[in-house]
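Box S1 | Example of a co-folding query
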Amino acid sequence: MTLYISRDHALDLLRQMIRIRRLEEKSVELYSKQKIRGFLHLYIGEEAAGVGAMRALREDDNIVATYREHGQALVRGIPAGEIMAEMYGKANGCSGGRGGSMHLFSAKRRFYGGHAIVGGGLPIAVGLALADKMKGEARVTACFFGDGATDEGEFHESLNLAALWKLPVLFLCENNQYAMGTALDRHVSDSDIVNNPPAYGIPSESVNGMDVVAVERAVHNAVESVRETSEPRFLELRTYRFRAHSMYDAELYRSKEEVEEHKKHDPIANFQERAMSDELITQSDIDTIEADVAKEIAEAIEFAERGEWEPVEDITRHIYARDLS
Amino acid sequence: MTTYRDAVRTALQTLLREDPRVFLMGEDVGRYGGPYAVSKGLLKEFGEERVRDTPLCESTFVGAGIGAALGGMRPIVEVMTVNFSLLALDQVVNNAAVMRHMSGGQFEVPIAVRMATGGGKQLAAQHSHSLENWYAHIPGIKVLAPATVQDAHDMLLAAVEDPDPVFIFEHQMLYGMEGPLDTEATPPSPWKAAIRRSGSDVSLIAYGGSVHKALTAAEKLEKERVSAEVVDLRSLRPLDRETIVASVSRTHRAVVIDEAWKTGSLASEISAILAEDAFYELDAPVVRVCTLEVPIPYAKHLEEAALPQVDRIVEAAKRSVGGG
Ligand SMILES: Cc1ncc(C[n+]2csc(CCOP(=O)(O)OP(=O)(O)O)c2C)c(N)n1
Ligand SMILES: [Mg+2]
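Box S1 (continued) | Returned holo structure for thiamine diphosphate
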């Protein structure tokens, strides 16, 4: 299948996906060296979803994400060093070391977090969109969440409220087939997730989340429709997580064969292949990207290593606008 | 004289008139006029954009309030009563309270959340809760309990002005209460406790609806030659330790009145503060007058027996003074 994109476009998509993949791989390494602690949820296998979606969004749009957000944060423009430093828990991290891997934030990038209560970010996204609507801003709020979140009451409440009040929210469900160890058909009564939103009057569409170009197109159309109508839309990005749910997961719930089968649809390998056969890129482009990214990640680690630990005396900062103690 | 209900409405009106970022949302705040008639007439004056009837989804409309606050608005969210606020606790505890912190100070949530609280209307076990202590437990939010008409007005203004999430608990028995309201005067800080009546023998420490029971008890005690001081906590988080300790340092005795269940209550917290900071000032053990450890019964005589009442406060104060 021909890609119908420019060389620069192809190079950018590939570069972004590789940046995420390598950042995540490095994170695993650093986790085993105990540089990164706590929960760590990897995006490996799902890169096309975040990269395609981010490219279709404008700088001025709002993003609300989950704990599996390193990729989105990186592509959104939070420097790799600040992400890495945050995972280290250092003061030069993008949340000052108070958040960690699950809570990346950036006011500058309108990245409203990394939320680790499943479904908890959806009402926030609805509220951000409400504020924009009331202020007359043309902005869209893009809200990422997993298939597991669709089980939650807040998912249904948020769809209802966004539709009822006609709010500019783009709901982006990254369906990676599992909520931790519970497969889709074991956690929702109708595993065709796109059937949900129409019940609230929200147009809904499913897209191959392993195909970065398909994702970008679908998100582009959806987001422009939200912008134009100021009404919500829903997209299901069908994807698959190649790694464990978090670093604590023994993966008892799925077979190696199943994972291997899905790896045949690796979003990066597939895209490289297609872009090369379309003669958009060459092996040496890939080599250049890999070298650049390796350098970027190495610098990010250096940035994190160099970072300071926030002094314990400052522990009561960031609770209230003014310290109450 | 103004009612407590009208005082809250006056504050709402002022806020909606003066600040275009302010809007009110909640169940039945618009067409219905508010479940306690607090927002009656506001829909007509300000329209559906700014006085928003929400669906029945406490978690999501509180969460949307948090989102709107993040987005630069100054939402006032009414959660009909504390009983239903339990459905929104996730948004309160996991989002409103921690957003500033998790983001390393990049984001703040200037939201004001109002709700009715307390028992006394024979509404039985699901509609009579006093769970202010659940909220007061949480760093990152602030909690106010206006007991007077003036505070009902002033505290809402202060809550909306505050850059942090503020939760206001309005005792359901107070809405019809009348009292003076001065909208011109500079209000005292909402974060300080107030001495509602001076006394020298015992401090009656209370908040919200219980303040009035404590005042009535103090009058009765006076007839029995016991001079009781009444401390209105006003702010439940932060707690004004200074005023509490200063009062008890004068009277040397303390009775803490709290409509919550005794176990794990704010009354327990006050007792602990006194043990920590006023131990050598105390001439008698601290006494807690709280709700009996039962779900609130429907039958009138049982509900009355369960909730703190004037007689129990009087008795506790006498016990405290007698044992000194
Ligand atoms: C309200 C809530 N319940 C349970 C959990 C524990 N938990 C963390 S991730 C997860 C699975 C979520 O699955 P999904 O939404 O599909 O996201 P994915 O991890 O697949 O990206 C669960 C159950 C949680 N964090 N929050
Ligand atoms: Mg999932």
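Chain A touches chain B at residues 62, 93-99, 103, 105-107, 112-115, 117, 120, 122-132, 134-135, 153-154, 157-158, 160-161, 164-165, 317-321, 324 (CB under 8 Å). The mean pLDDT of chain A is 97.
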